Amino acid sequence: MRPRVKAYDHADRYPHELVEQMKQMGLFGATVSPEYGGLGLPATLYARIVMHISSVWMALTGIFNSHLMLALAVEKFGTEAQRRAWLPRLASGEVRGGLALTEPDAGTDLQGIRMTARREGDGYLINGTKTWISNSIEGSCVALLVKTDPNAQPRHKGMSLFIAPRGPGFTVGRKLEKLGYKCIDSGEIVFNDYRLPADHLIGGEEGQGFRQVTGGLELGRINVAARGVGIAEGALKLASDYAQVRKTFGKPIAEHQAIQLKLGEMATRARAARLLTLDAAGSFDRGERCDMEAGMAKYFASEAALENSIESMRIHGAYGYSKEFDIERLYRDAPLTCIGEGTNEMQRIIISKQWLKRNPVG
Ligand SMILES: Cc1cc2nc3c(=O)[nH]c(=O)nc-3n(C[C@H](O)[C@H](O)[C@H](O)COP(=O)(O)OP(=O)(O)OC[C@H]3O[C@@H](n4cnc5c(N)ncnc54)[C@H](O)[C@@H]3O)c2cc1C
C-alpha cells in the first residue's frame, strides 16, 4: 500500500484492489473463530497488524475493523443459526459492512436514538436515519441499533440490534466529505419502511441491543488504540528519518537540542501507547475484564497520535505542510482516533469510574 496510498488518499477513492488482497489475506475474518471460517487471531496479534498498517495508512484498517465489530456482535451474541448463516460470508469478505449506531441527533448518548423497529406479523418494520456509518456505501450489511420499545425505562431496555442487509427501504446517501480518513466510505443510511424477518434480531430477544453493542467495546477500543499507536509510530519514523538528513547551520537538525527534545518525547509517547495497547489486548486474550485498560489505551494512544503527528509536521518545516510528503496525511487522520469508539472526553470519565470502583476507600 505504501506506493499507492498518496494517490488513493488525495483522490478520496475506495481501494477496491487492496480490498481484494485483504480478502485473500483473511483480514475480514481476522478475529472470527476458525469454526466459522475466520483466522481466530488473538487480540494481541490483531492489534499488531492494525498498528503496522496504520503506521502507513490508518484509513485502510477502518475497512476491516468496523466490519469485524459487526462480526463480533453476531459471534458473541447471535444464535447458532445466525452464526452459521452470516459468519462464513463475513469472514471471507463476501459480505462486508459495519456498525450502524450513530444518528444525526445521537452519538455519545446512544440511548437517545430515535430509529424504531415495530413488530409486524413475523417480522419488523424499521424507520429512521443513521449517519457517519463506515462501510455503508461499499458494504452490503450493517449491525443496526434500533428502539423496539421507545417508551422503555430505563431507555436501554427498549433497544435491540439487528443484522440488516441491503434491501428495499434501505437507502444509502452520499459519501461524507472529511478532513482525513479518506477512501473509506462514511455515509448516511435512510431506512424507510424497511422490513426484516424476526430471525435477523441478534440473539432472538428484544431489549438486548445496548448490552450487545457495549459488549464489543473492549475489542473496539483496543482496535482504535492500535490505530493510534500506528500513527504515533509512523509520525515518529518520518520525523526521525527527516531530522537525520535535513541540515541547518551546518549539521543535521537531529543534532539540535530542540529537535532532540521533540524526538525524545515522541518516542516515549509511542512506546507507552504500544505497551498500554498490548497490555489491554493481553487482558482481553486472557478473558479478563479490561474496560478500564482498553479505555486507557484508546485515550492515551489516540492523543499520542495527535501529538506525534503535529510534532512530526513541525520537524518537517514547510515540507510537512506539503501534500507531497506523507506526514500531512497522518496529521489529518489522527483526530478521528480521539472521536471513534467513544470520545476521549467520555473515555476519561469511564476510566475514572472504573478506577474508583476498583479502588474504594481504605
Ligand atoms: C469518520 C467517522 C467515522 C464514524 N464511523 C461510525 C460508524 O461506523 N458507526 C457509527 O455508529 N458511528 C460512527 N461514527 C460516529 C461516532 O461514533 C460519533 O461521532 C461519536 O460517538 C461522537 O458522537 P457525536 O459526534 O454525536 O458527538 P456528541 O455526542 O454530540 O458529542 C459532542 C461533544 O460533547 C462531548 N460529550 C458528550 N457527552 C458528554 C458527557 N456526558 N460528558 C462530557 N462530554 C460529553 C463529546 O465528547 C464531544 O466532545 C463515525 C464518526 C466519524 C467522524
Explain how this protein is built.
Helix content is 50%, strand content 16%. The chain is an alpha+beta fold and 362 residues long. It has 3 domains: 88 residues, Orthogonal Bundle (Butyryl-Coa Dehydrogenase, subunit A, domain 1); 109 residues, Butyryl-CoA Dehydrogenase, subunit A, domain 2 (Beta Barrel); 143 residues, Up-down Bundle (Butyryl-CoA Dehydrogenase, subunit A, domain 3). The chain has a 4-stranded antiparallel sheet with strand order 2-3-7-6, covered by helices on one side. The model has no long low-confidence stretch (mean pLDDT 97). The structure holds flavin-adenine dinucleotide.
CATH A-level architecture of the largest domain: Up-down Bundle
Query: What is the CATH T-level topology of the largest domain?
Result: Butyryl-CoA Dehydrogenase, subunit A, domain 3
- How many domains make up the coordinates? 3
Q: Give the biggest sheet.
A: 4 strands, antiparallel
**Rg, alpha carbons:** 21 Å
Task: Describe the structure concisely for a colleague.
The chain has 362 residues and is of the alpha+beta class. The chain has helices at residues 5-11, 16-25, 43-77, 80-92, 209-214, 217-245, 257-285, 291-315, 327-339, 344-358, and strands at 97-100, 116-120, 123-134, 141-147, 159-165, 170-175, 186-197, 247-248, 251-252.
Structure characteristics:
362 residues, Butyryl-Coa Dehydrogenase, subunit A, domain 1, Butyryl-CoA Dehydrogenase, subunit A, domain 3, 3 domains, three-stranded mixed sheet, binds flavin-adenine dinucleotide
